[in-house]
Amino acid sequence: MSNEKVYQMDFAKIYRALVNKAVKKGRTKEEVDQVIMWLTGYSQAELEDMWEKELSYGDFFRNAPELNENRKLIKGVVCGIRVEEIEDPLMRDIRYLDKLVDELARGKAMDKILRK
Fold it and tell me: What is the spatial distance between Cα 22 and Cα 33, in angstroms, rounded to a whole number?
């Protein structure tokens, strides 16, 4: 799938998929929200507002209030690609979120997920 197709995907749909993935593995929607807020700088109220809007996944990240500087500590493989080696900064940020939710779903401790 091309980067542009990913950027145009509906954020609300992606969000529901991320939450479902975590919940199926015994985690909570609140934990997914915490991970998203840590990564992007959105508040809970802003995040909840995003679910109601028609917003692309790319714009969700482009408009993020403050991407966490520690996101660069996220390493590993998502969809067969090392996230730290992705050249496109927007796609890298999107894959960082994928990686964080993967870690959450695998049962990793929240302190480790949030790189504390």
Answer: 11
